Amino acid sequence: MKRVVSVSLGSSQRNRSVQLTFAGTPFRVERVGTDGDVGRAEELIAEYDGRVDAIGLGGVDRYLVAGGRRYELRDAARMARRATKTPVVDGGGIKLTLEPLLLRRLVAEGELEVQGKRVLLMSAVDRPGMAETFPALGGDMVYGDLLFGVGVPIPLRTLRQVAVVGAMFLPVLRRLPMSVLYPTGKQQESTKTKHARYFEEADVIAGDFQFIRRYMPDDMEGRGCGGTAEAGGGEADHHDSFDRRGELRSECYGGGAGGAGGQGPGRDDGGGLSAAGGGDEVAAGGDAAPLKLLEEVGGGRER
After folding, report:
1. pTM over 0.85
2. How far is 144 from 161, CA to CA, in rounded Å?
3. Which of 39, 184, 247, 294 could lock onto 300 through a cystine, CB 3.0 to 4.6 A?
4. pLDDT score recorded for residue 266
């Protein structure tokens, strides 16, 4: 049996271990949270090095992408360098392939309408595949990189703007602690509404679920929930957060160790899609949807 471990900067409360089968090969996929402690994450990666078949970086991207350029994050690079024998991945390749594929399928099957709809994507540099696919499908875009990632109250509307802003900010931001750029540890258990009007105006809300949960308004009634954050009770936690702040019940797609909704054992946040228009809920079939798609791509099956 192959063993894959995701070492996450996220909360240890969502630790989990599952067995999966891909292309006839059994895997044990585990998630270990460090509650935002980068040093502890480095220690764990060093401990697992040579003892497991792959290590995922959880709660952190190794690279952010803008204008065709990749910017390596300092904390992620430090974590990855602690392994010298075992491959270290962050799920970026899956985000570039599976998320656009799933998005196009949702549209093709009538589960999600994008043409002419207002789309809020929390961060384009974190989700380059979705950032390109939504406008290609006719979405009217707001990219929240400045709004939610930097704290500058300016929405970005085009990928050209994302590229220019990325070239300006990412060489500096990549050097900051991950806790400044993304909710880690205890930050994932608290919320602070920011730029509520963009949530309220959006027909579709997409991207990193921890970003969505952290900054969404208290009133999310009529919004569907998409994506899961991490292994171990993630779905229930997300249902609860939407229930408390919008009094709705909805299905989330994604799940499994490391967030199968677009992340694999790397980033632990899950690629979220929410339908926000007219009170209509769009669900992508619960946990089965991404796993079914993975089966078609590589033969994945949870046991």
Report:
1. no
2. 12
3. 294
4. 36
